[in-house]
Amino acid sequence: MPHCENFAPIILTGDRPTGPLHLGHYVGTLKNRVAMQRSHRQFVLIADAQGLTDNADNPDRIRRNVIEVCLDYLAVGVDPAYTTICLQSSLSALNELTLFYLNYVTVARLERNPTIKDEIRTRGFGRDIPAGFLCYPVAQAADITAFKATVVPVGDDQVPIIEQTNEIVRRINRQAAREVLPEAKAVVPKIGRLPGIDGERKMSKSQGNAIYLSASRDEIGTAVRRMYTDPGHLRVSDPGKIEGNIVFTYLDAFDPDVDAVADLKASYRHGGLGDIALKQRLEQVLETLIAPIRERRAELARRPDDVIDVLRQGTKTSRFVTQQTLSEVREALGLFILA
Amino acid sequence: MPHCENFAPIILTGDRPTGPLHLGHYVGTLKNRVAMQRSHRQFVLIADAQGLTDNADNPDRIRRNVIEVCLDYLAVGVDPAYTTICLQSSLSALNELTLFYLNYVTVARLERNPTIKDEIRTRGFGRDIPAGFLCYPVAQAADITAFKATVVPVGDDQVPIIEQTNEIVRRINRQAAREVLPEAKAVVPKIGRLPGIDGERKMSKSQGNAIYLSASRDEIGTAVRRMYTDPGHLRVSDPGKIEGNIVFTYLDAFDPDVDAVADLKASYRHGGLGDIALKQRLEQVLETLIAPIRERRAELARRPDDVIDVLRQGTKTSRFVTQQTLSEVREALGLFILA
After folding, report:
1. What is the distance between the alpha carbons of residues A138 and B112, in angstroms, rounded to a whole number?
2. Contacts within 8 Å (CB) and 24+ apart, A241-247
3. Which of residues 170-199 of A touch B (CB under 8 A)?
4. Cα atoms found within 13 Å of the Cα of residue B257, Cβ hemisphere only
5. Domains of chain B
6. Where are the beta strands (DSSP E) in chain A?
7. Cβ–Cβ below 8 Å for B315 and A338
8. Which residues in chain A have their CB less than 8 angstroms from residue B100's CB?
9. ipTM of the complex as predicted
10. Which of A188, A204, A235, B328 has an alpha carbon 20 to 30 Å from B158's alpha carbon atom?
11. Do the Cβ atoms of A99 and B49 come within 8 Å?
12. Burial call A309-332: b when 16+ CB within 10 Å, e when fewer
């Protein structure tokens, strides 16, 4: 990673507040944020402005979920003493950087972005893609660079956005003839994406296949009972398959007793372990994980002003950081500064 | 003009600071600004951020010309006591509005914009058009609406941008179920565009066919001598043509003595009026117009801090106005407001 030697590692990560967070987020990112927050300077951005790029008709959904997402962060142990949680739409420097950067990126380049291509297909936008949606990788470049983030945890599908960011960084540094901004490194988690309870590749609210961090014991039980196992495993005594068996995928992801899971797998393969017993174990594992999160979340939800205070405080800190970067970029590009 | 009844007329106008202003600007807009400033609330925006959309490689050009353009305004009589002169890049609300609005406009709609189509052709951008340039009609919609402008003086080629603005206004008002923003009316000046001294349709720095508001007597003389008249008018006694005769076009635009110009036309048509005498008259007319502008401009240029103060003061006022509009739009759309 060239050009990063002079910068302490800074992490930028975040979520679009389109719904409360679920176990997929926990495995994919939240757990890492808690693990990393003492060894890195970490900013977590609640990306409400980005959420609007494909929810312009329903800003209400975005507004409501800002607090839900913030509650999820605090409940899993993201600690405002170490992690700066902030609200994207309250950081005006991000908008200005986005509009500068749009001058450095061609429309053709944006259209070639594989993330955008995929999402256009998934969301069925066709030629009527909102301009804000086409431009969102540039807005992400503004987010990343405004915090001078050098480490950006992303899903494998988001790697091209970090490449796009670094193209802009190099362009600006070249024009300024010095290192105004650091390049960022995409960090893709080793653990793959957690599938939905129906076995679909992605856990998501819209698919109705998610287990939320606020799930009650009953909701966990219902979800686990719905899980796909091995359709050929009809009797307890039959040998069963592990591959594609979502219950084992979840046990691998969440059961802390790795040896016990290995024994269960052997027994399931051999025959003699029933789905009901297996699911009871998973249900207990998930309840053990979620119960304290659910309780902290409920306790915090009774003090919404304290939660908003966390967000306000983090946003203030982030405003200093991002305005400082904006000033440096404006000066480096030689804009007219009206002191 | 529907939806405007509740708003006092507000004018928004401005220039991209890509070079000092010339007689084309004077005829097309500056003269009107001076005439309108006591009967309207008038904002004049020095559009440096927009200037960057196709000058990202050369921000220096934009920065240098901010003061040049401001000097031109003051020199022609735009009076900061009546007109608020402000700097676009110092008004962060404009960026935020632009990014909101981009969510309401499809890429296909931007590409259909005839102004954009024309300019892509003229500037030779092809598919490598900068994204910022494609989006600039939306940035103009942000400018216009941020000031709640209801009257926008534009060239006939810019009318589609006002239509685009009003589409966004209606979209937001519909979503908010009330009139958050007024629609704007494009006002196209009755006097056509002033051609360059070479007879080209447009006076422009890049064509080298402009007479600047800072032109010396010598520069005026040289420019007038270069002007295209009637190539068939070889001897003084020959009958000459008025149509396409740039000297008469300029006399029509600038000579206050309309009757005298009518007599000159008759005499030129009939034969007996030479190009030299005609050009001497025009030179004197232009010198009479430009001399006081040139002197005021030179005098102001010796006090750059005072000029910057005018810009700073106007920008502060504009910041209040535009932030207020931004707050109203954010509230109307139901964003999360972090007080």
Report:
1. 23
2. A241/A269, A242/A268, A242/A269, A244/A199, A246/A195, A246/A197, A246/A198, A246/A199, A247/A275, A247/A278, A247/A279, A247/A282
3. 175
4. 11
5. 10-194+303-333 (3.40.50.620), 217-298 (1.10.240.10)
6. 10-15, 41-46, 83-87, 151-153, 185-187
7. yes
8. 52, 132
9. 0.91
10. B328
11. yes
12. ebbbebbeebeebbbebbeebbeb
Q: Cβ neighbours of residue B192 under 8 Å, at least 6 residues apart?
A: none
**What is the side-by-side strand order in the sheet with A151-153?**
A83-87, A41-46, A10-15, A151-153, A185-187
* pLDDT for the residue numbered A297: 97
| Residue whose tokens read 């856990």 | A203
> Is residue A107 a contact partner of residue B120, using CB atoms and an 8 Å limit?
no
Q: Which residues contact B225 (CB under 8 A, 6 or more apart)?
A: B279
Q: How many CB atoms lie within 10 A of CB B284?
A: 13
- Burial readout B55-79 (b: 16 or more C-beta within 10 A, e: otherwise): bbeebeebbebbbbbbbbbbbbbbe
Whose structure tokens read 């300077």?
Answer: A41
A135 neighbors A102 (Cβ within 8 angstroms): yes
For A132-158, write each residue's pLDDT tens digit.
999 999 999 999 999 999 999 998 888
Residues 28-57 of A with CB under 8 A from B: 48-49, 52-54, 56-57
**Which residues in A lie closer than 8 A to residue B84 (C-beta atoms)?**
none
CA-based nearest residue to A142, from A335, A325, A332: A325
Q: Is the CA virtual torsion B130, B135, B136, B142 positive or negative?
A: negative
Longest dimension (CA), chain A: 79
**Residue A121 in 3-state DSSP?**
helix
Helical spans, DSSP H, in A1-135: 23-25, 31-36, 48-52, 59-76, 92-102, 107-112, 114-123, 131-134
pLDDT tens-digit series, residues A201-214: 888 888 889 999 99
- Amino acid at position B336, single letter: F
A11 phi/psi in degrees, rounded to 5: -100, 135
CB contact under 8 A, B336 and A63: yes
- Nearest-angstrom CA–CA distance, B225 and B220: 9
Which two tokens mark A97? 């950087």
The two tokens of residue B58 are 């050369």
**Does B234 lie at the interface with A, CB-CB under 8 angstroms?**
no
Tokens in use for A88?
Answer: 């994207």
Structural contact between residues B186 and B154, judged by C-beta atoms closer than 8 angstroms: yes
Helices (H) and strands (E) in chain B, counts: 15, 5
